[in-house]
Amino acid sequence: MKHYPNPKIFLITSVVVLVGLQIAACEKKPPLTPELEVLCSIDPSTLNFGTTTIFTPVTRTVTFENTSEAPIELGFSYTCQEISIEEEANSPLIVGPGQSQIITVTYTPEQSGPLDCAIELTGTSCGPILCTGNPVNNIFLRGISPNFASLSF
Questions:
Q1: Percent helix / strand / coil, the chain, rounded to 5
Q2: Are the beta carbons of 54 and 135 closer than 8 angstroms?
Q3: Do 76 and 91 form a contact (C-beta atoms < 8 A)?
Q4: Spatial strand order in the sheet of 58-66
Q5: How do the domains of the chain map onto residue ranges?
Q6: Which letter, b or e, does each residue of 12-42 get, where b requires 16 or more Cβ atoms within 10 Å of its Cβ?
Q7: First to last CA, the chain
Q8: Which band of pLDDT confidence, cut at 50, 70 and 90, is reported for residue 127?
Q9: Which pLDDT score is estimated for 21?
């Protein structure tokens, strides 16, 4: 007479083993190379271009510092048509750990009215850089003096 294993015990054992394998497969395992947290700072975080005349470029600088242990690939995104960034020509910039990058921002207003703009720094959680200013259409601010003696009535 042959002795066969109890089918109920075999079934229960199989289910327990399968559930255990599924649980083990679902466990979150640490990555082989842990991702480094990207830390940075910008100074100043607001660029005030002040009161200026239209079509007169005004330049300000911002210092971006990578305070993390990983390099940062830095790019720029903005909607202000009158803003230009000198370093954008070399974008994206690679800023190494512990290194700084000067960002040169030029504002050339084409019309009067307040400037309210933001420059997003892509590739990082720093920012945005806020831009403010008040361009005016005033010939006296541009150093042009009217000569009223030449007017005849």
A1: 20, 40, 45
A2: yes
A3: yes
A4: 40-43, 58-66, 100-107, 83-85
A5: 40-136
A6: eeeeeeeeeeeeeeeeeeeeeeeeeebbbeb
A7: 134
A8: confident
A9: 47
CA 139 to chain CA centroid, nearest Å: 37
- pLDDT (0 to 100) of residue 80: 87
Tokens of 110: 């084409």
- CB count in 10 Å sphere of residue 10: 11
CA distances for 71 relative to 27, 95, 104, 128, 144, angstroms = 31, 6, 21, 19, 49
pLDDT at 38: 57
Among the four given CATH numbers 2.60.40.10, 3.20.20.370, 1.20.1440.230, 1.10.150.120, the one describing domain 40-136: 2.60.40.10
Average pLDDT over residues 69-87: 89
85 has a pLDDT exceeding 60 = yes
